[in-house]
Amino acid sequence: MKTNISKKIAVIVVITFTLAGLIAVTLLSESSVVAQERARERSDPISGCFKTIGETEVVPSNIQNWTESIQNFASLIPTDDTLTLINKNVIGDSGPVTDMVGIWYVLINGNNTARDRQTVLTEVNSLLAASQPGFTQIQQDALSRCITNATNSLGPTPNY
Question: Environment class of residue 143 by beta-carbon count within 10 Å: exposed (0-12), middle (13-18) or buried (19+)?
């Protein structure tokens, strides 16, 4: 009788430690995913372009227009059919590109050709022009140049 109880207690202890280990691994995995996402966001130079240009090309009276234009730009990204097609056919992701980080990850993907990258940059320029209340031409040019320079710094992909 004591042996059966000891075996049951041993089994319960083993199960408890196994579950605790699985929970710990799950929590560590989730925190790793969150950390990777944060690192991904920090490494996105497109968002950095908006910050940099905003600091140099926006006068205080135009901050609201600048902010609204950025928000509108971001809202136009998921509606862009060309970005969605490149994301689907070249990158292999079935959904639309949803934000600036997504644009960057389309640009850095190894499946891209030089033509794919240029197509993405052309679409970004179109979205910059379509954003309302609108970036000034100087702001559009500076953003386009910043994003293009960041893209050109990547070097060729295997499919270049």
Answer: buried
For the stretch 45-92, pLDDT in tens is 999 999 999 999 998 889 999 999 999 999 999 999 999 999 999 889
Structure tokens given for 13: 């202890």
Cα→Cα distances 85→104, 147, 155, Å: 15, 20, 23
Question: For 135-153, what is each residue's pLDDT tens digit?
Answer: 999 999 999 999 999 999 9
State pTM to two decimals.
0.72
Question: Do 40 and 105 form a contact (C-beta atoms < 8 A)?
Answer: yes
Residue 144 and residue 150 in contact, taking contact as beta carbons nearer than 8 Å: no
**Which residues, including other chains, have CB under 8 Å from residue 66's CB and lie 6 or more apart?**
54, 58, 135, 139
Which string of DSSP letters, residue by residue, matches 47-75?
HHHHHHHHHHH--GGGHHHHHHHHHHHHH
Q: Which two tokens stand for residue 122?
A: 């052309």
